């Protein structure tokens, strides 16, 4: 698939007007209009609501998937809103001075951890479609005094980041929410510099039958996408990533991880390399 050309503005972001656009046509019966709201818009609206409430009920509590060292010094209200399914930064080492981008950064936990590692010479850019999440992540960066973080509202399918400028792209429990994942992967391939790497935490299971709490694309509802329980097999995922403009893909299985709502999903870390980058280095 041909990578998308990113824009330099936040034109793809979901405004509250956009979220409501499908539901406000005066001449259509309400039930028809609601059914036509795309899954992606419903998902963003759900996270906007959670950020407004100040606590997530979705995905994993960070205490279940991050190390104590990673969580040290992070404000508790960021942890309440964190909605990942793994810790991408536990899987790699970052270098001081690198440029890191987080697609679907949410309340910003991975931004904060990355910013401490790349140091003042590095740059960490977060992108999220929910204005409430963006405000939360900006507040967290300010509270921790991390001036190398820049949080932008935008749609990761049309990311407000220049092409070929990113060393490491993170995405934690986000790709699984998109029915059209190759579209997002194409945008990731476009912003990564040659030799850059994406580290994606997602719901992926070893080939065979999905675990009981994981569904597959055909049966998935908007709620399943919002909860990130729509899983793929490793083989399906690898083929999809390679077809989206990457040159190599590696997996690290994190096994079953507990969700806040009691579900158990299979989480994996996917390392997607653009160009002839070095293999992913184990951290520390
Ligand atoms: C499961 S949460 C993960 C958040 C964060 N990565 C974390 O680990 O806490 C998914 C995030 O993706 C954001 N999101 C959903 N659709 C998006 C889109 N089209 N563009 C940008 N962000 C989006 C949501 O607002 C939400 O913050």
UniProtKB/TrEMBL annotation:
Pfam families assigned to the protein according to its UniProt record, in alphabetical order: Methyltransf_31
GO terms of molecular function: methyltransferase activity
Methyltransferase among keywords: yes
Keywords carried by this UniProt record: Methyltransferase, Transferase
GO BP term, pick one: methylation
Flavoprotein is among the record's keywords: no
Domain (Methyltransferase) ranges: 95-208
The name this protein goes by in its record: Methyltransferase domain-containing protein
Organism: Amycolatopsis tolypomycina
Organism ancestry: Bacteria, Bacillati, Actinomycetota, Actinomycetes, Pseudonocardiales
